[in-house]
Write the structure tokens for this entry.
Amino acid sequence: MNLGSTAGADRGRSLRGTVRVPGDKSISHRALLFGAIAEGETRIEGLLPAEDPLSTAACLRAMGVTISPIHAGETVLVQGVGLDGLTEPEDVLDCGNSGTTMRLMLGLLAGRTGRHFVLNGDASLRGRPMARVSQPLTGMGAMIRGRAGGNLAPLAIEGCQLHGAVIGTPVASAQVKSALLLAALTASGSTTVIEPARSRDHSERMLRAFGADLDVGGDMGRMICLHPGASLRGLPVVVPGDISSAAFWLVAAAITPGAEITVENVGLNPTRTGILDVLEQMEARLEVLNPRDVAGEPVGDVRVSHGPLKAFEIAGDLIPRLVDEIPILAVAACCAEGVSRIRDAEELRVKETDRLAVMARQLRLLGASLEETADGLVIEGGRPLHGAEVDSETDHRVAMSLGVAAQVAGGTTRVHRSEAAAVSYPGFWEDLARLQADPGGQSG
Ligand code: S3P
């Protein structure tokens, strides 16, 4: 195995054993953010020690929040400064590659009266749409300026008193919803956010646990109403393993001859488990073991073993429940019998990369037969893949998806810019090597 910028993988080695994936990225960002504006201390167990949450922590530290060092396996302590305690940073806030950091910061900072903030990020983040957050915030009275009429970073925020509003969001996005709820905490009057389909609900769960006054209603929980006035209180938070990271092992086990992998301690929040529904649709050999509740989130262990797979079709309200898993599902589709279809997934075009275009381009290099549509992919399964030189194009989930595809591609595959995985899963390549080399061994 060749670590660093290029990872190599040969077909032939199966995958067996148990793995614990790192903490959920979405929950990690929220634990840091809500802890920062709570009163008192927030103790976070299982925080994801990867580049994206580190970006959130660095921004918060630059505004006077004390956060203990973030290392794998160590409890992280956040000393909250209260709802209005963030200080004006002396420099630009660097959100790195993290859309969640930038969008949630917009909501957090827009209502900080009398303070000025500038948000920036890497080349990928500077190209991602921010108007979906800055526009509704402007409707609440926010003053946000940026390139392309406030759509592109760098973004400047002039903090001011916001007022509550009723906002219908154009896309089912937890980042947009969460940004608006953060802004609503200090607005005058209540704010209602109505989503076109339900997105992940970690913010609602955690804000309520911290003491916010919040109602979730409407059809399938698509309407969230936040009443300002309650202060947040620091809490112990336990972050479960990220199902979006577990997804790579679930698919790897399903497609690799002879494989069996158990992923322990996986977050199974129903707004995130679309990948399990699709694997069931594919008739994958999958079991959920030890289902339990940990600090307000459902958790379990998931075991998958290799077997024949059927093609799948996904669209509509299922998409937000597996939006980050579409790259790895494209790999699964290559190994299934029949033609798989992904529709209503145009959001993938504005992720860290245009994931529809990138996955189509890279999987074709491995011999896959797939067609890109405006809002998805059509993938003909059952064509044997062959080793090739492929490239993550800097996208963490593409890097890991290609690493899994290499398992079933004949010969050697080299994944260039494989280090991108560290954005959400720093130990991914080591865990892959351990699962290949150590039957029955413990990874993670
Ligand atoms: C996230 C929401 C999703 C997801 C991203 C994390 C979050 O993005 O793709 O990886 O933590 O709220 P959208 O809100 O743009 O769908």
Q: What stands out?
A: The chain is about 30% helix and 25% strand. Residues 26, 29, 100, 173-175, 178, 199-200, 323-324, 347 surround shikimate-3-phosphate (CB under 6 Å). Residues 94 and 120 are 5 Å apart (CA to CA).
